[in-house]
Automatic annotation (TrEMBL):
Organism: Brassica campestris (Field mustard)
Top-rank taxon, per record: Eukaryota
PANTHER family, alphabetized: PROTEIN LURP-ONE-RELATED 14, PTHR31087
Protein name (database record): Protein LURP-one-related 14-like
Gene3D superfamilies in the record: LURP1-related (2.40.160.200)
Family: Belongs to the LOR family.
A Pfam cross-reference name: LOR
InterPro entries on file: LOR, LOR_sf, Tubby-like_C
Amino acid sequence: MPKNKKTEWQVGDPPISVVGDQFCNPYPMELMVKRKVINFSKDHYQVVDPSGNILLQIDGQAWGFNRKRVMRDPAGFIVLTMRQKVYKNIQSLKPPLRLCYLEIVYVCVQGIRLKRKWEVHGGESKDKEDLLFTVQQSSAMSLKTSVDVFLAENSNIKKSSACDFHASGGYSNISFKVFKSDALIAGVGVTHKFTWGSYCKGKYNFSVSVNPEVDYAFIIALLVMVDDIENLC
């Protein structure tokens, strides 16, 4: 990231369309994201506007490996699918050793030194040509969550020297910001005072400020993945 003073994406700047043009608005957006865990195995995110209209919903696994989260529009159609990269050591285990408990312990211990990576595809696809973007932790050792975002045409992380977007923060850090180069394009905050009770129950809300012409579905997807990293396992 550039070290110069950061600016903000404003009205008149070119659209930032990652998921789709329909998610870019010419004015700033204020959204509420409500998160809760269902049956201790699945979590649910609901995105609403100030009038209470549902704009997006995200469902997926709250624990374990092969995590997948699916984003749907208000009509129930799948917008995109987020998949966490599976560690090869776990994939090599066979039942009954490959238990959910072992997977959770493994990711909590190994998470100290392993970077997490997500791949996001349009719709339900897994095909390379439908890849929208890739997300990877900037540093596995950092106390503050920090992730780099690479668009599909720049998704070879090993060979790429610069990310397309950078996001940092999460629940435990109270704030969450997304940058394109040196420009702030979105910001997130927790809407209530932190309590261990709400955190352990997996029930809390985010307020999301999306700058003009910025793809809000892209921002929400980033929020879900950063929140997942903050929750460790």
